[in-house]
Queue: 4 jobs
Job 1
Amino acid sequence: MIEPQPAVQPQQTNGTGNATGKKRRFGGTEAQVRSALKFYKVLAYLTGGMLLLLCAEMIARYAFGQYLFAGGTHGLTGEPFGLGFADAEPPGVIGGFNLSIAILIVHGWMYVVYLMSNFRLWSLMRWPFVKLIVMALGGVVPFLSFFVEKKFHAEVEAELAANPQAPQRY
């Protein structure tokens, strides 16, 4: 005959996927996590803004054949050129600073720094790899960095508040 056994109660979770009896571990102290969060937030907004500017520049370039220039001389009239759009082919501005190319370069390097901020926060929070991919997509999908930043910022704050002893390493 089989002896009756008490039913095993499933562990309660605290909303972050961790069992309430299990101590949450971070990869750094609370100050390090908050520093990484602030760095990530600033870079998310800067990269998202530059991405929107890049999208506007790409539309101007490929839909209308225009580059954004600052300074130089107008290619057809010979008059000084201030700031604005000019034809890409044939060159509408001679000797001016091509802001369209500058936007491309600045966004590219800013995205590299954004990826470093993603990795720093991800490693300190000890999140699954999928979250790193979602954070990285924020720099290449327009408007996504704003939404992802808000979601992950709230998640980090909730995890720090729910586990006040976890980030104390030293």
Job 2
Amino acid sequence: MNILLIQKAGTDLHHTLFSSETSRLVLRFYHPKKKSCGVYISCSTLSSALSLVAELRWYIRRYVREPLFEWERGIFFTHELAQDVYYERTAVLSPGWKYRKLYGFKDGKLVSTVPMSPGSTLDDYHQEYAGVTHAIEIWCNEDEVEEGELIGEAESPGNPDHED
């Protein structure tokens, strides 16, 4: 089980986490890796990944756009779905999960989200991702799948209209 913490725009999450003694102590056994879009952390189980996210919740609220959990290579699921799987046991993950979306990245920044149709694959969305350098599939709950959006300047931290 791995965690991908997608950093908010204008944040160097790896530097932020290691400049704080508190988060350094929490992460001392995990050896997080810096990625262009945030930080990647290897954990042994879903329970340990959820526990680590809970321990880092202050940093996540402040500096992270979204914590994601890697189900298998290239397929991630949301924090809400992870909690449903582990705590509520209302979801059982299996290949061909119905509620999915794509995150498109360019230069390490999240630039678009697109809901995926049931039965579709990442390759089916190639044309919609012109200019996107990397895309990942996100599994989520039904209520987390929303209309696709382009993420732009409205989310930059210097914009007074931006809400956290």
Job 3
Amino acid sequence: MSAPMYLAYDYPLLSAFWTMLWFFLWIMWFILLFRIIFDIFRDDTLGGWAKAGWLLFVILLPFLGVFVYLIARGKGMGSREVEQARAQQSAFDAYVRETAGPTGRSSVDELAKLSEIRARGDITEEEFRKAKEMVLSGQSPSAASGSAGPASGTPGSSAPGSGTPRK
């Protein structure tokens, strides 16, 4: 038990700040190193041998390699990152548009659909008039018009499960 015991007050405040600074710089160095490695692989203008050369230079001589890469190719790093972000955003937008399907139906489409349903005899003239008022007022009658016609039976039947809305 003759070993000295270090307590918190044996480590001065300035040493704690220096330790935190060096730790922060060490983490920032690794972040910069990995950003450069990702940029080497992201750059389409470099050939395979050039990518391998830069990668070896950055890994074998990390401090010198990173600084030389930043001086030689640092200007294009930002533009390549912005280009990749735009490509990802446009791919995401295209995916959302594709997944969302066609845009909402216009009032002309809704009226054409209503008149077709009326011509088949699936809805009465009064139901057509109410649905037409809803379309012209800006409400969506597609739920009402889609279930307005009977699923089975004769037009105008009001049996339960026939699809005719109850009044």
Job 4
Amino acid sequence: MKKNIGISIVLMLLFQTIHAQMIPKGFKSIFDGKTTDGWHTYGKEKATAGWKAENGVLHFDPTVAKNGQGGDLVTDKEYENFHLKLEWKVAPNANSGIIFYVNEDLAKFKNTYETGLEMQVLDNDGHPDGKIEKHRAGNLYDLIKSTSEPVKPVGEWNSVDIVCKFGKLTMQLNGVKVVETMLWDDNFNTLIAGSKFATWPGFAKYKKGKIALQDHGDNVWYRNIMIKEWNTMEITTGCENGL
């Protein structure tokens, strides 16, 4: 019995070491792979049952997300200058999104997308949004079309990097830079004026906010969610690692 306990402890420590090695320097995990600690459903105190944390994967299950058990999942914490890394995959015909700079003021905003910018997560071939320019996987939703489409087939994992650093936004999909823009300048305001968000008073107005994973009613999976923050007030548009 003691031998088995010793083996279990060794295996657990080995797993923790491997997991730590997977996190790049300067990053910290914001999903422990087992629970939704650090997250909650938008407008609620905790995560609803539609979001399942199992075996290192965060799964939105629409069959469970009934009777108020769905909704977008958001971080408890707000982020300002950050580099978000994660992986996602979708079921056939599915739609979701990674939304950032979300302001959770329920008196003003009933949904995450009323304030936050979104990197689209989508089955381009199976979902109707795939037929709409600027609504495809990797796009800055309804604002900027990605420069290329390195998205993998449905059911395969896609890696994402979203870097928001002192006004400069850079997004990568599977290691390929797909969007780069300055936020909140005149050019960006022109993009908003030509989008579906033109008359939304709170959209893209906040320079600090929560990160959300969208419930769009479809099966979607996320894993290896981690973040690095910059807390200096130095004004720069440079991003690390070529981002």
